Amino acid sequence: MIKILKDLEAISSEAADIFCDTAAEANAEGRDFRVALSGGSTPRRLYEQLASPPWREQVQWNRVQVFWGDERCVPVTDSRSNANLAEQLLLRQVPLPRENIHRVCGDLPAEQAALKYEARLREHFGERLPIFDLILLGLGSDAHTASLFPYSTTLGEMERWVAAVPAAGAEPARVTFTIPLINHARRVLFMVHGAEKAEALWHVLAGETDVQKYPAQSIRPVQGAPIWLVDQAAASRLRQAGLLAPDGAGSRRPGDQLSSDRSGK
Ligand code: 6PG
After folding, report:
1. What are phi and psi of 32, to 5 degrees?
2. Alpha-carbon distance 98 to 64, whole Å?
3. How remote is the CA of residue 193 from the centroid of ligand 1, in Å?
4. How far is the CA of 148 from the centre of ligand 1 (A)?
5. Which of 30, 42, 104, 173 is disulfide-compatible with 167, CB 3.0–4.6 A?
6. Is 226 in the pocket of ligand 1 (CB under 6 A)?
7. Distance between CA 98 and CA 110 in Å, rounded?
8. Between the CA atoms of 75, 78, 81 and 87, what dihedral angle is there, to the nearest 10 degrees?
9. pTM of the shown model
10. How many angstroms separate the CA atoms of 46 and 39, rounded?
C-alpha cells in the first residue's frame, strides 16, 4: 500500500497512528508489541510525536519491546548511533521500562555485535525466526534499506537473522537485520521523504527488478506488502511516470506495489 502525503510531518503522524494501532492489536492479542525502529534521520519527527499527545497516552509502554533493524557500530553516545536518536527523542520521554530496550552493542566489532544481537533475539523470541509486529524502515538514495546496501554479501544471507556490515570509507561498520527476518514481520512500514529519494523509490516500486542494485526490492513481507508512507517530493518520479492515482493518493491499485511492467507506461 502506498500513501502519498504532503510532507514529513504528515508521514510522521500517519506512522505514529500505525505504531499505536499495531501496538494495541498486539496487546489485545495478549503479547507485548515487538517493534524494530529504523535508523537515519527520517524517524526523528515520528519519535517526537510518539512522545507527545495524543500518541503518548495511546501506548501501553510497559508492553512494548524495542529493537533496531540496524545500527552503526559506534558508542550509543555517538550522534551517528540510531539508538542515540531514539533514546533522546522517545525512549527517555515515555514510561518504557529500560529492560524493554534491546540495543545493539555498538561498542563491539561488527561481527561480535551481530552474533550478540542475534543471541538477544533468540533469548526473546526463541529459536524460530522472529515475527516482529512492526518493522520501521527508511530508504537510502541508493535504494538501500536498513543496512542492506547494493551488491553487498548481506543480500544473500538467508540463514542468519542479523549480519555484520563492514566499514566503508568514512562509514562505520554496522549490524543489520537480514531479508528473511524483515520479511517475516507482521507489518513493515517504510517512511520516505524528500526529492533525493524519488529516483530510488521509482526503481524500487516500478522499475526493472534488480535486487542487488535496488536492495529494498527484496522487502516482500510474507504477511502482506509493505506500507509505504511517501511525501509528494519523493513521489515525484512515480507521478511523472503516470503511476499514481489522479488524486495522488497512492498507486493505481492500492494494496500492491507497482509492478515493473508499469515502468514508464
Ligand atoms: C541507517 C538506516 C538507513 C536509513 C536510510 C534513510 O542506519 O542509516 O537504517 O537505512 O533508514 O539511509 O536515511 P535518512 O532517514 O537519514 O534519509
Report:
1. -65, 155
2. 11
3. 11
4. 10
5. 173
6. no
7. 24
8. 100
9. 0.94
10. 12
Residue 128 burial by CB count (10 A; 0-12/13-18/19+): exposed, middle or buried? exposed
Residue 135 Cα, ligand 1 centroid: separation in angstroms?
13
| Residue with the three cell numbers 547494493 | 150
Residue with cell 527523542: 89
The x, y and z cell numbers of residue 37, run together, are 525502529
